[in-house]
């Protein structure tokens, strides 16, 4: 039976129908591993503000396409599971990410030892984990807030991460901050790709600081030429004055000598 399903063009393993929604549940082999998802009715909007994203969840490492059941799929798609709240009212959830199972409380994430803990861990156990200090040494990368599939342009996986200035989408090369109207829980893959495309279209940020500094330096150097010109002009003027003075002195001496000669002849 599994071979027959794999031979289908779609490659879907039909698992059954969700009793609550009436939607068909299938298992597929994706680029990043096997997963389960629901088939949305025809006519369901896939883009825009009213877009509906099908529930999707990766299979556990202990599961396979030919053994996963409808019950397994519904449990997987029920994640993240709310474990409870701490004394300050902050919600703790159990989630299955690309890098494995983990707990999330606000921005604080803690890894779980096994995938089965996602459905079995209690609030007391979760609080005990958070009561322990984080392990020092090599810090584990924060798990993404959401996975959006593969970008059609860069062909790289796109995820939503929690950054210093809020959530953003990234494909590992380009980062784009979510807008005010975007929400981590409802953002669609298409919207994520759109934000990345807009960021790429803007190009890298222009660096103006160096140009401004260069202009200031050039402006400062300009007066030096004027000063040099003034000094040259001053030297020429001084030299001209000296030459004029010499000519005047020589002329006076010549005139005096002529007068003396004339007087001598008269006597």
From TrEMBL:
Sequence ranges of Low complexity compositional bias: 235-267
Segments of skewed composition (Basic and acidic residues): 191-201
GO biological process, one term: DNA topological change
An MF annotation (GO) of this entry: DNA topoisomerase type I (single strand cut, ATP-independent) activity
Domain of life: Bacteria
Biased composition (Basic residues): 202-234
Residue segments, region Disordered: 133-267
Keywords from the UniProt entry: Isomerase
This protein's name: DNA topoisomerase I
Organism phylogeny: Bacteria, Bacillati, Actinomycetota, Actinomycetes, Kitasatosporales
